[in-house]
Design goal:
single chain
């Protein structure tokens, strides 16, 4: 009876040891799985963000290629371009 109890205790301790080892110390531990899952989630959010940026930039490019007024506005505001007969005064706040 005592031997059976000791064997059961050894079995339980062995299972407990392997469970703890696999959960925390193994290369494929639960901690690693959680870390990788968090990293993957962050990268998926970045993909969505950059896809939105690409779509926005494509729309802006399309607008600039088709509408000369918008192209002139961007050229004047961002690159300080002017017509030959104009003077530009830049006032900074």
């Amino acid at each position: 009876m005592k031997n059976i109890r000791i064997r059961h205790m050894r079995t339980i301790l062995t299972l407990l040891f392997f469970t703890v080892w696999i959960s925390f110390f193994d290369r494929n531990s639960l901690k690693e799985h959680v870390t990788v899952a968090c990293h993957l989630h962050r990268l998926e959010r970045e993909v969505v963000f950059y896809q939105a940026q690409v779509n926005n930039n494509r729309q802006r490019l399309s607008d600039l290629l088709t509408d000369n007024d918008k192209l002139e506005k961007v050229a004047r505001e961002q690159y300080y371009m002017k017509r030959a007969d104009e003077d530009i005064f830049i006032i900074e706040d």
